Amino acid sequence: MNKTALITGIRGQDGAYLGRLLLEKGYTVFGADRRSGESGNWRLKELGIENEIKIIYMDLLEFENIYRTIERIKPDEIYNLAAQSFVHASFEQPILTSEVDAIGVLRLLDIIRTIKPETRFYQASTSEMFGKVQEIPQTEKTPFYPRSPYGVAKLFAHWMIVNYREAYNMFTCSGILFNHESPLRGLEFITRKLTYGIARIKHGLQDKIVVGNLDAKRDWGYADEYIQGMWLMLQQEQADDYILATGETHTVREFVEYAFDSVGFKIRWEGQDVLTKGIDEKTGKVLIEVSPEFYRPAEVELLLGNPAKAKERLGWQPVVKFEELVRMMTEADIRRVIEEKR
Ligand code: NAP
Ligand code: G4F
């Protein structure tokens, strides 16, 4: 039977890829959009699915709005991807972040409990919940220690997922996803900031990129693979929580080096901390600078996930490696910059 899914955050990176996957699987896909304007449609357009998704206006801040929407479409599956997802911004907007990322999830859960408790629910949890990591690598059993208002808000939502599963026997899953990137990643995140900036430098449109902490380590995977894991979680007999990660970690500095290398620049480093400079070996020009503006009040220094449970129970395994991911993103941005110059 044709299933109906509701994806919140449809205009985001993961929403767009998941929308495409569910359409391919024959779902009727409703995409919840908080009405932030036409320009936010670029991802759905790039994937050629902007006319296939049934867009509805829904903001996680507004209870009645969510209630009416769920009552009307009564989805079989809900994928809650909507969030204020930028960690840095959560230090400036901790209350908004908590309203959306914590209480917003509770609004959804409680409405489903009332209207259609058999709905299968995926919550976009995050490796940020591990924060100051208590164990390396991190597994589903590693204690949490969030280091940002974003991480704290997501942890509240994570425990609500567990609680609604245990208290009401609802099919609620928490996908604890480590960083996943793609050519559809937002420009505020370090990977796209770098690949887009590098493409502009390559084409003479920009001189340098100014960044923050180069020594933070992340377990970076490819978003289009991670959304398959989300879908698999909701197809199991039992609801459960799973880590999706690659099991490999790299510094931001390594990302810089690989990304520049993929378009023909060799980076030589000089200086330390905020005085660090990434210099083009050939011309001596400074291509990377560091500014305290991009540092966080509390940093997550290292993330490294162990995806063994997802592999064993879901048959999920990431294929795209770090180098391929970096190259894919840089090449996509080079193509975009060439288009922009036309
Ligand atoms: P994203 O690109 O930032 O997308 C988030 C979406 O949420 C955007 O479309 C945004 O709408 C929407 N949104 C924000 N506030 C909202 C509100 N009040 N009501 C309704 N919608 C709202 O994020 P992503 O990278 O696709 O990530 C998807 C989810 O996974 C997020 O919950 C994120 O926190 C979580 N996550 C991401 C990663 C990762 O590495 N990508 C890892 C772990 C967890 P606009 O388009 O209007 O701004
Ligand atoms: O790309 P980021 O902003 O991603 P972050 O903070 O790891 O969060 C992302 O992944 C989480 C999963 O672990 C998601 F839950 C969350 O929604 C989001 O998708 O920063 C990555 C690292 C940080 O250590 C940051 O301090 O890069 C460092 N960094 C250094 N310079 C920078 C910059 N980050 C950004 N955004 N911009 C910089 O200039």
From TrEMBL:
Alphabetized Pfam families for the sequence: GDP_Man_Dehyd (PF16363)
Domain called NAD(P)-binding: residue spans: 6-329
Keywords from the named record: Lyase, NADP
Record's keyword annotation contains Lyase: yes
InterPro entries in UniProt: GDP_Man_deHydtase, NAD(P)-bd_dom, NAD(P)-bd_dom_sf
Swiss-Prot/TrEMBL cofactor(s): NADP(+)
GO BP field: 'de novo' GDP-L-fucose biosynthetic process
Class of enzymatic activity (EC top level): lyase
The keyword Ligase belongs to this UniProt entry's keyword annotation: no
Documented EC number(s): 4.2.1.47
Coiled coil: none
Reaction(s) this enzyme catalyzes, per UniProt: GDP-alpha-D-mannose = GDP-4-dehydro-alpha-D-rhamnose + H2O
Any one GO molecular function term: NADP+ binding
SUPFAM superfamilies the record matches: NAD(P)-binding Rossmann-fold domains (SSF51735)
Function summary: Catalyzes the conversion of GDP-D-mannose to GDP-4-dehydro-6-deoxy-D-mannose.
Family stated for the protein in its record: Belongs to the NAD(P)-dependent epimerase/dehydratase family. GDP-mannose 4,6-dehydratase subfamily.
PANTHER family (UniProt xref): GDP-MANNOSE 4,6 DEHYDRATASE (PTHR43715:SF1), GDP-MANNOSE 4,6-DEHYDRATASE (PTHR43715)
Protein name (record): GDP-mannose 4,6-dehydratase
Annotated source species: Candidatus Desantisbacteria bacterium CG2_30_40_21
